[in-house]
Amino acid sequence: MTNTVYVPIDSAATSVGATAVALAITAEARRRDIDIRLVRNGSRGLLWLEPLVEVETVEGRVGYGPVTAADVAALFDSDFLTGADNGFSVGIVEDIPWLADQQRVTFARVGVIDPLDINDYEAHGGLTGLRTAIALGPSKTVEEVLASGLRGRGGAGFPAGIKWRTVLEAESGQKYVCCNADEGDSGTFADRMLMEGDPFTLIEGMAIAGIAGGATKGLIYIRSEYPDAIATMRAALLIARGCGLLGDDVLGSGKAFDISVRVGAGSYVCGEETAMLESLEGKRGMVRAKPPIPALHGLFGEPTIVNNVLTLGTVPMILAQGAAAYQALGADRSRGTQVFQLAGNIARGGIVERAFGISLKELVETYGGGTRSGRPVRSVQVGGPLGAYFPASALDVAMDYEALLAAGGMLGHGGIVVFDDSVDMAQQARFAMEFCSKESCGKCTPCRVGSVRGTEVIDKIINNVDRNENLELLNDLCDLMIDGSLCAMGGLTPMPVLSALRQFPEDFQR
């Protein structure tokens, strides 16, 4: 009997020794003359347990973690291949409360399948959505996405179906689908994990978008800091072309669609769609003025669907299960699920996919287990480096677009960064301004100059130089950046600054 063992190939797992564990398991099995099948899967997202080794048993997949290469011999000695309980065992992986309580839609296959096995992908429901889209045709596919309520998971929350319909109705001889995988927000890693753990879901989602919008070419813009994701996507694209998922005749539909990978050059602002398009065209990544919108005048001036990884990666499930099933999840205008990413000073960091409406408190305390340091939570930043800071007293806020906006924050890409009571929030406010000054594309004055002056003003406040006057000046400067910046880079930088001033005024008075 061949024993199947799973060891993640995800970057987070390999960074803490997963590849060494995989090699040690192979060597130990050979030494003991035991026949095993080793699968390098994606990470389940329980990052505090990585490297997490799983073994297929009749009861289900049993997990062991965290495991080091030095622990492998002991695992074999304790008969882990049969799912035996030992000091490393976490039980049936699907039954771990942290995972069992989730509602995985976008991440349904991540950690379950071999990322580069197209047969494994199809056995777990892959390609059903694309076949459905082919049968429905472009207009009905767009209507299905509209009916689902899917909104852009990159941060803006714009209805995906409206973008798609605009591109479908545009007249052009060449249309594009561009996937923005320039995941640069602090505390975010879901795009990378999906590309490394289930790349065919992204490919299928882009192919559906291509058929729906009438596009024949797709591009994935991946940040250069993600070498493993780049390699995995390129390998998956070769496999997809070989099996007819991409090419001149997608799954025998008569429709042509192909995808290529483009590597970014390290600019944070290229997470903004028009700056990404400039970069794809070989120009410096600078924001374009809108209108015209990319759906009408996008890549090389042609109609272009621009969505991020999580948006496109959710589409196959919507088409496979129907818009109503997705619409049934969520709260108010925020339908479906969000892939939340827990990071910072947190005991249990990782991926939590739940329907919109879950509270920030449940994510931080129930899933995250509070701070890793064991000290009280003081502040939680939601939505990346330009997101608002929420004090421990305000964690009951619902995690959906409208509720966070009403509370003075934003959902962004779903990143959640936790700080304990040792944090200096005046320094965090300064970090936001300095971050903007370094990452600004420089096109508009409020962002380019305002962020530099903002950093200087915060330094004066911290050093008690004309504090009251400079506090007033900082508020005026923030208003100017909000109203006058060309894009969200400058327009949102005041959000963390003002939230820190409002929620933690004592840190500016020291």
Structure description:
With 510 residues, the chain is an alpha/beta fold. It folds into four domains: 3-100, 3-Layer(aba) Sandwich (Glutaredoxin), CATH 3.40.30; 118-327, NADH-ubiquinone oxidoreductase 51kDa subunit (Rossmann fold); 331-420, Ubiquitin-like (UB roll), CATH 3.10.20.600; 425-508, de novo design (two linked rop proteins). It has helices at residues 11-14, 18-31, 72-77, 97-100, 118-123, 128-136, 138-148, 160-169, 190-197, 199-213, 227-242, 273-280, 309-321, 323-327, 360-367, 401-406, 425-439, 445-448, 450-462, 467-484, 488-492, 494-503; strands at 3-6, 36-39, 53-57, 60-64, 89-92, 176-181, 217-222, 258-263, 304-308, 330-331, 334-335, 337-344, 350-355, 377-382, 389-391, 415-420. The strands form four sheets. Strands 2-1-3-4-5 form a five-stranded mixed sheet, with helices on one face. A hairpin with a 6-residue loop joins strand 14 and strand 15.
